[in-house]
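Sequence only, no structure available. Ideas?
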Amino acid sequence: MEAFWLSLSLIFLAELGDKTQLVALLLATRYTAGVVLAGIFVATLAVHALSVALGGATGHLLPQGWIYFFSGLAFIGFGWWTLRGDSLEEQDYRPSRFKSPFIIVFVTFFLAELGDKTMLGTVTLAAGRELLPVWLGSTLGMVLSDALAIVVGRILGKQLPERPVKIGAALIFVAFGLFYVFTGALALWGSYN
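Reply:
I predicted one. Tokens follow.
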């Protein structure tokens, strides 16, 4: 039971102010809170299952440098997609491969969590502890933290101007992307020298 409460509290705190909490807030301005929460919950279950498996097995199956590097590239892509992407107006709607809001939330959140500090934190927590309590505790801690962002997104969503939010989100994605690309590159550089 100690592993559950430790995982819940540490991941809840780690997620506060994290980029994926911003993703939850932004998704909540576009989709219903229930769909966003369900997508986040299922994506978190999947990512944290992977995290716990990695931590339980060895904790070193994927070099951290590569995780950071590819996560950084993905976030730069998310930034570009955010600037170029969807408009909230019906006449500007362009069909995409994913039409289900649940699938959009799930995929967005799943990809956003890869290489994130909460994923790496869950890997670390799983090393040397019982895996099921770590998985359940870290998932619940993250979902509770992101539920706060969903509430804020639903309250402020109608009052937030679309263009500044889109530009701000894109800049945040790109900033995190550049940070992770450089962090990953430095880690890889150090491991090969």
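The chain is about 80% helix and 0% strand.
Hope that gets you unstuck.
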